[in-house]
Amino acid sequence: MAKLFIVRHGQAAFGQANYDQLSNVGWQQARWLGEYFAERELTFHRVVAGDLQRQQDTAKGVLEGMADTNSPIVTHAGLNEYDGEMMYQAFTGQSNQHLHQKRDFKDYWRTFRSAYEAWIDDELTDITETWGDFGSRVEEAIAHACEGAGREDAVLVVTSGGVIGSALTALVEGPQRGAINFNFQFRNTGFCEVIMGRSARRLLSFNNVPHLDRAGRRHALTHV
Question: From what superkingdom does this record's organism come (predicted)?
Answer without folding.
Answer: Bacteria
